Every structure is written in C-alpha cells, then in structure tokens.
Amino acid sequence: MTLTNWTLALGGLGLLLLGMQMLTDGLKAAAGGHLQQFLERSTQTRLRAAASGFAVTAVVQSSSAVVVALLGFTNAGMLKLRQAAWVVFGSNVGTTMTAWIVALIGLKINIGIFAWPLIGIGMLLQLFRKQKLSGQIGVAIAGFGILFVGLDTLRDAFEHVVTMLPVEQLHVTGTGGIALAVLAGVVLTALVQSSSAALAIVLTASVSGLFSPLAGAAVVVGANIGTTVTAIIASFGATAHAKRLAAVHVLMNSVTGVTALVLLAPMWWVAQWLSGGEQVTNISSGLAVFHTLFNVLGIALMWLFDERIFRAVERWYKLPPLRTGAPRFLDKTVLEIPAMGLNAVQQEQSRVLRQYQIRLRTLLRDSRLAAANEEDIATGELLQHINDYLQKLSSKSLHGNEALQLAELHSYQSRLIDLRELVEKLRAATPTQIDASLNHDLRAQLLELLSGSEMKDRPQANWQALVSSIRATRNLLRSTWLQQIARNELSPTEGAVLIQLASHWERSAELITALQT
Hints:
Organism: Pseudidiomarina woesei
Distance between the termini: 71 Å
GO molecular function, one term: sodium:phosphate symporter activity
Radius of gyration: 30 Å
Number of helices: 23
Protein name: Na+/phosphate symporter
Shape: elongated
Pfam family, one: Na_Pi_cotrans
Number of domains: 3
Order of helices and strands: HHHHHHHHHHHHHHHHHHHHHHH
Membrane topology: Multi-pass membrane protein
Strand content: under 5%
C-alpha cells in the first residue's frame, strides 16, 4: 500500500468529520431559538419527547451535538431532566438514520452525481446570504455534500487497506474478541467525537470485508457506548443539571450495551434475516438493521427503568441550595446556542430578585417567612457570575430579538445591582432605626408589594398603584419627621437617618416593580 492510499484514507476521514461538523453547525445556527420552541412544545410525554429526539438527530446527524445542546437547555431551565432524558433516548434512535443513509445510499450509488452540486449550492448560499437564515442552511447543505464525498473517499481507501491488514484477526472469536471489538468501537467514537461518524466508518469498512458480522455488531455496540464520552467531557465543570443528564446518558447506553452483548448472536441473526439472509454478501445493511434494533432495545429498557435511573442520578448530583451564590443554570453548555444562554441568565437573575425579596421581607419582619428563609444569601457572588456570562454572550453573534433581549438583560442586571446597594444599606441600619422608619401603613404596603404568592399574577396597574401608595406614605412620614425636628422632638441626625431609610424603602419598591413588570 502506497503513501497515497494512506493519505487518501486520512483525507476521507477528515472530509467525513468536516461534513458532519458543517451540517451540525449550520442547522444549529439556523434553528436558534426555534429548536427551543420545538422541544418545549413536543416533550410533554415520554413518547413525544423520544420522537422529538429522533427527528432532531435524524436532521442534524449528530446525537453528540443534540446531547450537548440538551445539556444547555436543561441548565437554562428550558427542559426538565425527565424531558431532556427522553429526547436523548430518542436521539439515540435518530442516529440510525446515518447508518441507513450510508448503507442504502452512500455505498451503493455514484456519490458525485449529487454530492458535488450540494457543496456548490450550499457554499454559494453561504457566500451571498451570509447574514441570513438561508446562509446557515447553505452551510448545512454543503456539509451534507462534503460528508458524502468523505464516505466515497473512505470507501476507496478501505479497498486498499483491507489488502494490507490481517483481516482474519478481526473476526470475533470468544468473549475476548467481542470485548476487543467493543473497545475498538468506544475508542473510535471517542476519537472522532461522533457515533454517527464512527458508524459511517464501520459500515464503510464492512463493505471491504474488514469486519466479520459479529465483529461489526460488537463495534456498533462500542460506538454507542463511546458516544457518551462527548457528554461526559461537556459536563466537566458544569452544573448539577448537566451532570445529571450526562449520567443518564451514560447509564442508558451502558445498560443497553451490556444487554445487547448478552443477546449479540440472536440479535445479529434477526438483523441478518431482516436484511436478506445469509446470501447477502454486503453486511452493511445487516449492521444498519442491528444498530436500529440496538437503539429500539434501549428505548424499551428505559421505558421500564427510567424512573429508577432518574432517582439515582438525582441522589448522586445534588443541586446547590436555592440561596447559594453558585449558579444553578449557567455553565459552558448554555453558550452553545445563544438562546439558551439568554434564558439561563434570565433564570439566574430571577433567583437574585427572589433573594432580595426575601431579604426585604426579613427586614420587615414578615411573619409568613419560615426561619430557614431568613439566612444570608451570597447575591454578590451570583451577580458576578451573571456579569461574566453576559460578557461572554456579548461576544457572540446575535441578531434581531436575541440582541434586543441581551440589551434588556444588561438593563435588568444594572437594576439588580442598584437594588443590592439599597438592600445592603437597609441591612446596615439597626433594628430600632428600621422600625422607626416604618409606620403601620408603610410596612403593610411594602409587604403587600413583596407578597410572593400574588406577584406573578398581579396586573401592572396594581404594581403602579402600590408604588404610588408607598410614595405617598413616605412623603407623609417625611413631613412628620421634619415637623418633629422643627419642634426639637427629633434630633436632626436621627431625622436624616429616618428620611434616608424611608427613601431607600421607596426606591426599593420602585426597582422591584420595574424588575417584575
């Protein structure tokens, strides 16, 4: 085998990976917030969530990309763990489309007839419509074409590779051989960071006789287990939400993989029978059927055991307490799609606002607050995390509504910082001063404004009416204190402190109203 053949194989692999990357990136950029809206509408039941995962992965052609995106959606609070997990389960079935495309199209027709035109059309769209939705779709179309050119190049290269390798050593014999084939699948997928790409390589190699049927099936099992590596890497340094979903993904693929290995021979017999029987010399179709059976088996197992897995991962990875300074929704995964990052920041800012409401109600001695809610809260630390993420989001390419939403989040953050300063000034006062700065009416009005159970459904007119009442009461108190100072009933220093505190209460009410409406 010449150096040209080796470089041909390497180039084919590079084109395959480049094509998948372009296809995935183009579709993710084109989808944007629409992917979030689609998933929110279509994940209400286990079956619908699985169907959504299948559909998205069949289009994007990368379960790893879908899983990483789901880590971000879960972190951002857009999807619950159970919703996201069933999208992942369906996503595994969606990867079977890659196997079928390779087995039925990529290895049996003249790829150049449509692959090269796809590359040309896609790149022209990207060139002339760069800032438009059609430009991103063009990247995806070009990636689809490059993917097939890579497959064709790999197929030609493997025809030469097989003549140089001791193929008989790649035939599975015994438990050790099966374990070695599974390990090969895991390593291959971990290296290329895509089970779809790994399957394309395996099916392409199978045409040249590089694998025996059982060896190919065992490599397919390993490839499915190996796809969890991407999720594990993405969850490093991430929040508990991401770690939980990654753990579910690992457990699902591992349990399915072990079950499939136990049933390897009968499953391959069924796959062979469904693909045409022993007389079919090309095993790529059989491996595509086996891959489909494997992932359908995974869905069936999860239908029985999903709740046990969910409860286990929730025990392993605890969420930080509600009032900790550690972010619950922000990590690197939410930056994959700007819409996720924006939503995650919004969730964290809502946490900060809730924390300040608790502080203010504590200062007002709200009897409805439980003792556990009266602890101090590290809002300064959390605000810094939010600031850092806002800066990262600002460096992203945002358009239209996303850019407008980011500007609104910056404005919201500034108000939160102002509110923090006011709350800290109020907390610095003595209990006696706090009590003196409030009469019965002002305390009642502030508690009504800060009533958590009514905030969500309160009309904007009611918010403004409450603020007007608070302002009027504060003005009345100010006049009273000024009169007391004039009559020497109140020292100027004490009066100035009370007037300042009352002003802080009024300004806090105004900021809370602005942040809620």
